[in-house]
Each structure stands twice: as structure tokens, then as C-alpha cells.
Amino acid sequence: MYNLVVFISGNGTTLQSIIDAIDSGKLDANISLVVSNNPNAYGLQRARIANIDTYVIQSTSAVDTDEELFEVLEDYDIDLIVLAGYLRKIGLHLLNNYTIINTHPSLLPKFGGLGMYGMKVHTAVVEAKEKFTGPTVHFVNDKYDDGNIIKQTKIEVLPTDTPEDVSRKVQEVEKVQLIDVLNDFVKGVL
Question: What is the dihedral of CA 96, 108, 20, 162, to 10 degrees?
Fold first, then answer.
């Protein structure tokens, strides 16, 4: 079985899409653990409902968090770590020992980097009058949203679209794209 660990910070809608894909047989994988830096993240409840182990990060510094997570993850058989709305930078200890991917709601390298997440990204896309946007799945490195791109899906942005419209469009495609990428990992294509 292909084992995933999913890192979240909030609502966990992307986590839920992975859970649903596994439950429906569209993804032959297992989520071993869900990690959050936010003890109030609703995604933790989604994990508990699905009988998935959860872990809330205790450390506040980046260096301590990296060491803490490395110790926790040693107890799990991990093929891939998926950042699904996780808002902290990943430390070098984890980067050097695990394959980690992230899903981001823009066509990187545009609208990425520190502080660019969720509606902030969609608002920036609309304000820049972009004609296209879309989600990106990429490998994680030591810089925010900078790793090699695995897959992007282009979505048209209409002149009348609000940030909320763009968000809905991107989220629909983002979840499908992520499951496709995860299937490529499971099949050994990536």
C-alpha cells in the first residue's frame, strides 16, 4: 500500500478530496497520518472521522518544528508527504529525508511565495487582470512555492470573475489534478 502523510493548517477540503478518492477506489493509497500546525483546524476532525491518526505540532520555531516532525514521522511508513493548505515552511531535515509535494492555487511562479495562499492568491490574480490561472502541484524545496513543477492546469479568468469565482474554478480543478498526480506516484510514474 502506498502511504501518504498529509499536512494541513485549516479546513481540510483538499484532505477530504484525498480521503474521498481513496474511499471510492480512485486512489490506491492510505493516509497514515494528518499533521497540523493549528489545533483548531477542521481538517483534524475530518481525519478523525475517517479514522486517520492526527498530530498537532507543539513547537513554535522552524528548527524545533523540523526536529519534532522528524521524530514523529519516524514511527510511520511514508512514501510521500502532501502539503494540502499547510502554511508553514518545511525544514531541511524533512526535505532531506522525504519526498514532499505541495498544491498551490496559482500557475507558479506567478502569485507564489510567503503569504500567498487562498483568497490572497485569487484576489491578486483578479487585480492583475490575468487571463488565466490554475492550480500547480510541485515538489517542495527550501523556498516557498519554488520547487520543480509536476503539473499545472490552466483555467480561463473572465473579466467579470470575482476572487470568489476564481477560487471556485481553481478548487474544482485543483482536487482532480492532485488525485491525478498522486496516482502517478502510486503507479511509479513520478
Answer: 150
CA dihedral 139, 141, 147, 153 (to 10 degrees): 40
Grid coordinates belonging to 153: 492546469
Second-level CATH architecture of 2-111+135-152+174-186: 3-Layer(aba) Sandwich (3.40)
177 CB neighbour count, 10 Å cutoff: 20
pLDDT, one tens digit per residue, over 34-50 is: 999 999 999 999 999 99
Amino acid letter for position 53: D
Question: Catalytic residues, which ones?
Answer: 104
Q: Give dist(CA 79, CA 44) in Å, integer.
A: 21
What CA–CA distance (Å, rounded) separates 138 from 54?
24
Record the pTM.
0.95
Query: What count of other Cβ atoms lies within 10 Å of the Cβ of residue 52?
Result: 20
Locate all alpha helices (DSSP H) within the chain, ordered by sequence.
Answer: 13-23, 42-49, 62-73, 92-95, 118-127, 163-186
Domain coordinates of the chain in residue numbers? 2-111+135-152+174-186
